[in-house]
Automatic annotation (TrEMBL):
Keywords: Electron transport, Iron, Iron-sulfur, Metal-binding, Transport. It comes from the Archaea. The keyword Secreted does not apply. GO terms for molecular function: iron-sulfur cluster binding; metal ion binding. This is Ferredoxin. Signal peptide: none annotated. The keyword Membrane does not apply.
Amino acid sequence: MHVEFDRDTCIGMFQCTDEWDAFEENRDDGKADLAESEETEPDVFVREVPDGAELDAEFAARTCPVDAIRLYDDDGEQIV
C-alpha cells in the first residue's frame, strides 16, 4: 500500500497530522509535509505505508477536506 500527497492542493487544516504521524505540520508554509516521502512530480509526494499503519493512513486520507491525500493498494487501485 502507498500514499500520494498533493502538497499543492493542501490548505493546511492539518487534520491529517492528527490521524497519522507521517504527516507533519509545516506552519511556515501553511501546509502539511509527508515524512520519508519522495517527490515524484512537482508537489506530489509518495511513500509506502508501513505494516500496522494502514488504518491511520486511511483515516488521514479520509479526513483531508480537499482530497489532497490518495491511498492505493498494492495493485495500484485507489482505496481513498
